[in-house]
């Protein structure tokens, strides 16, 4: 068993004071050696973090016992890993826990949740099922479910511009899916508002399906938002579907371009990546701001005005008395 864990979760439970809660959450992660990306909003919480197995266990227990989330389900997706999957910790307050701008509330209405086993069964036995990928184009370019409909969109904000592409499928059973399930909560709700009647969603997303059902018929790898860049989910009938951006040989080595002004997410085979010094084109290779070659193809996003100390500095802004908070997971 590997010593570290990578957790993926979300929870659409209203948080009364997001700024104050951000401070508490940030402090807890620092004191318990957790790294990752966490978004706090008035509509809920969304996170992916990494840490030692015992620290992650404490963190999950701490969240599940927080009175704010009483009676709700976090449905953690837990993967083993050799090291931290993140280099930094970011806990930020945003308007939404997933960028969408869609006029929906998943606490009011959303697509019917399908657990991985039920999802697998429906795919095998119901000819009226259509899978719809709600992820960005660079995500599904490296991996997607066999036969799934995909959209050429950068973010979920663009979904309204693509719904017409599946208008002819309104009489089918639509199953939306994404990495961990969070995008589908709003995407499926939006489809219902657009007149789609039989809308379902894969609960827990691709990651949970891989963990519980072996990831059958997911072709390629799953794009993830940490140092791993991609992760394998299919242990039943795996297949590589992506090609190297440079030489077009079969490759699922997903990278982001070494030129920070490009930062394109593309598959590049290790040989071409070395030859191009981490860049996706000759122009990027010769760019004056090109970052040093990294064989993994992963470059941490630059974080202006944010550091682990940020959480401590901002205490004075919110006038929060931290002596009153119990940070123990006991």
UniProtKB/TrEMBL annotation:
Pfam families: Rhodanese, Rhodanese_C, UPF0176_N
Compositional bias segments (type: Polar residues): 297-306
CDD domains on file: RHOD_YceA
Reactions catalysed, as given in the entry: uridine(34) in tRNA + AH2 + O2 = 5-hydroxyuridine(34) in tRNA + A + H2O
Enzyme Commission identifier(s): 1.14.-.-
Assigned keywords, A-Z: Oxidoreductase, tRNA processing
Record domain Rhodanese: where: 125-218
Region (Disordered) location: 284-312
Secreted in keyword set: no
HAMAP family in the record: TrhO
Function noted in UniProt: Catalyzes oxygen-dependent 5-hydroxyuridine (ho5U) modification at position 34 in tRNAs.
Family label: Belongs to the TrhO family.
Protein name in the entry: tRNA uridine(34) hydroxylase
Species this protein is from: Flectobacillus rivi
Species lineage: Bacteria, Pseudomonadati, Bacteroidota, Cytophagia, Cytophagales
């Amino acid at each position: 068993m590997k010593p570290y864990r990578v957790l993926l979760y979300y929870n659409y439970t209203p948080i009364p004071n997001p700024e104050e809660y951000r401070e508490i959450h940030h402090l807890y992660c620092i004191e318990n050696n957790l790294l990752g990306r966490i978004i706090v909003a008035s509509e809920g919480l969304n996170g992916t973090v990494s840490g030692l197995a015992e620290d992650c266990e404490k963190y999950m227990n701490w969240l599940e016992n927080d009175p704010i989330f009483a009676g709700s389900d976090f449905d953690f997706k837990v993967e083993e890993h050799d090291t931290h999957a993140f280099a930094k910790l970011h806990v930020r307050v945003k308007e939404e826990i997933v960028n969408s701008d869609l006029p929906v509330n998943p606490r009011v209405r959303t697509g019917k949740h399908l657990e991985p086993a039920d999802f697998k069964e429906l795919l095998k036995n119901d000819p009226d099922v259509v899978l719809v990928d709600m992820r960005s184009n660079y995500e599904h370019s490296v991996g997607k479910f066999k036969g799934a409909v995909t959209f050429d969109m950068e973010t979920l904000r663009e979904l309204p511009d693509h719904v017409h592409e599946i208008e002819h499928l309104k009489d089918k059973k639509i199953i939306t899916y994404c990495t961990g399930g969070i995008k589908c909560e709003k995407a499926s709700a939006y489809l219902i508002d657009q007149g789609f009647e039989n809308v379902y969603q894969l609960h827990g997303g691709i990651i949970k399906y891989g963990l519980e059902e072996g990831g059958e018929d997911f072709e390629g790898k799953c794009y993830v938002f940490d140092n791993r860049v991609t992760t394998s989910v299919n242990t039943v009938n795996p297949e590589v579907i992506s090609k190297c951006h440079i030489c077009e040989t079969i490759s699922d080595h997903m990278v982001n371009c070494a030129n920070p002004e490009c930062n394109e997410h593309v598959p590049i085979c290790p040989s071409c990546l070395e030859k191009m010094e981490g860049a996706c084109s000759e122009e990027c290779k010769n760019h004056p701001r090109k970052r040093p070659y990294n064989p993994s193809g992963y470059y941490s996003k630059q974080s202006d005005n944010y550091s682990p100390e940020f959480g401590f500095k901002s205490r004075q802004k919110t006038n929060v008395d931290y002596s009153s908070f119990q940070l123990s997971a006991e």
